Amino acid sequence: MRKTIVAGNWKLNLGPDEGAAFAEILVQHLDEPIDCDIIVCPPYVTISAVSKVLQSSRIELGAQNAHWEEAGAFTGEVAPSMLLTIGCRWVILGHSERRQLFGETDEGVNKRLLACLSAGLSPIVCVGETLAERDGGRVQEIVLGQIDRSLAGITAEQALATTLAYEPVWAIGTGRTATPAQAEEVHAMIRQRLAQTFGEETAQQMRLQYGGSVKPDNAAELFGQENIDGGLIGGASLDAESFAAIVRAG
Ligand code: PGA
After folding, report:
1. Which of 116, 130, 122 has the alpha carbon at shortest distance from 39?
2. pLDDT tens digit string along 60-112?
3. Which amino acids bring their CB within 6 angstroms of ligand 1?
């Protein structure tokens, strides 16, 4: 019922030349009909070069962040409309690295989300608890709190254009994946909260990705869970064969 969505987050890897060359290999690996939204999110400076390569492919482009203002004195930021003009349809918001290393807050993520939605981008909003929070029995409080604050003020229609990515911080880049049961438990809890906020029908249509050390050998089982509709892939998205295998697992 919900179309699978697999996105590769390249993080701070692959400049324009490397990114374009890698995208060409990716296109060859994914040159078959697959019923899945496939997205890659290169660094800002690489997006245009990759866009040219992906033009006639079924792989779409996303950015790793966007600011809430359209223009002005905001050094280092990029506006949602700028991303649209270089071929992005998607944008990751609130990734745990942004939250942990660059001080982003739920309130800031919310402002970015509202701006991206009104510009017409499809945002992927990331949430997830740290290991200390999980060990302290605070998963529900942390994850639902992040969702409530990050998604504050959006309409049910805007919620439908939004994808959520549950990424436990302890599973990102660590090789330590949440078990399918652990991931499903949180995804089910998230969907329940979305139903309370936006209504059951909207919640059933919204797509929820799992992220955190997804690899070809664990993707199928994770994506097979009732409330997991795909993945946000870091490390494994930088290997064309692995990323293609993960997409096929969807
Ligand atoms: P990982 O990263 O797949 O390398 O764990 C996931 C992410 O940060 O989105």
Report:
1. 122
2. 999 999 999 999 999 999 999 999 999 999 999 999 999 999 999 999 999 99
3. 9, 167, 172-173, 211-214, 232-236
